[in-house]
Design brief:
single chain
């Protein structure tokens, strides 16, 4: 019992660390200016791979990575995960550097509901009544924001669906792939993308890296660490906490992103945005209440046989 409690506390700390870092990530990317989003993502891929290679060397975990490479289906599935996560990264960094942090927070608020919807579309799962209500309210929220604000929230939906699909693919590989090996292979698949992006920037506007002072160089070099550390904390938390608690902790990141966008970067929050966000929060309350109730029901039901 003591060991379980200790593991739970450690898991909670890891989860707070992961989602807390993801929540304040917009501030980090704003500090990278004048580096543009295409260049940021290019360097982020390369330095993430370098950091992961160092981790694999220090932990002597290359054997696990090689074992994954020898399984073509698993290896190519991680390539698909890499494609989805680079779409997510590119949209996120673009939005952050273009004053759309609040839209990114909306995307991650919607993400749990998109995950439920993907279960219906991809796994033919049946939704409970409360889950349908949550999906419906979220749809209304998106319409309110699109009509009232005059701009379709493509950033929010692109983030929600790309990360939702990424989570779906990662769930398919399950425990067969550890966090470091998975991230290493995903970013390794993306190296041609990174090279192409950096070549494009170099041939057009010119690379900022090395031309905007030492602080900019250090921050770009550290982007690999900033990418990998929250993912490793997340993996550590997921091993120690029930899925229900992980689901509750995930709201920390968009809450912090919303605070950063609205109150630190002072992005506009007209009435229609408040109404849209309020509807999303109602949907999340419905979804979370249903999740907790169904979890208690499963625990209370007698074991078969």
């Amino acid at each position: 019992m003591q060991q379980t409690a200790t593991s739970g506390r450690a898991g909670a700390l890891y989860a707070v660390g992961a989602y807390g870092l993801w929540g304040v990530l917009p501030i980090y990317f704003v500090l990278l200016l004048p580096t543009g989003p295409i260049e940021v993502v290019g360097w982020r891929i390369i330095f993430s791979l370098v950091f992961c290679a160092v981790l694999l060397t220090v932990t002597r975990a290359w054997r696990a990575l090689i074992a994954i490479v020898r399984q073509p289906r698993l290896f190519f599935t991680l390539g698909l995960a890499g494609l989805l996560i680079v779409i997510n990264w590119q949209v996120y960094v673009y939005a952050t550097l273009n004053g759309q942090v609040i839209e990114t927070s909306l995307g991650y608020f919607i993400n749990p509901i998109v995950t439920v919807l993907l279960g219906v579309l991809l796994l033919r799962e049946r939704l409970r009544a409360a889950q349908w209500v949550a999906v419906g309210i979220s749809g209304i929220a998106v319409l309110v924001i699109a009509i009232g604000y005059g701009v379709f929230p493509w950033v929010s939906l692109a983030l929600a669906f790309s990360f939702g699909l990424y989570g779906f693919v990662k769930k398919r590989v399950g425990p067969r792939v550890d966090a470091v090996s998975g991230l290493t292979l995903e970013t390794a698949w993306l190296i041609p993308v990174a090279i192409g992006q950096l070549w494009f920037v170099s041939a057009t506007s010119g690379l900022v890296f090395g031309n905007a002072g030492a602080a900019n160089v250090v921050l770009l070099l550290a982007s690999g660490v900033i990418t990998a550390v929250p993912l490793l904390l997340f993996a550590a938390a997921a091993r120690r906490l029930p899925l229900v608690y992980m689901g509750l902790f995930q709201y920390l990141a968009p809450v912090l992103q919303f605070i950063v966008g609205a109150f630190i970067l002072h992005e506009a929050m007209p009435l229609e945005r408040w109404i849209g966000f309020a509807l999303v929060w109602v949907a999340l309350i419905v979804l979370t209440t249903d999740m907790l109730a169904s979890g208690r029901a499963r625990r209370a039901s007698p074991l078969p046989g």
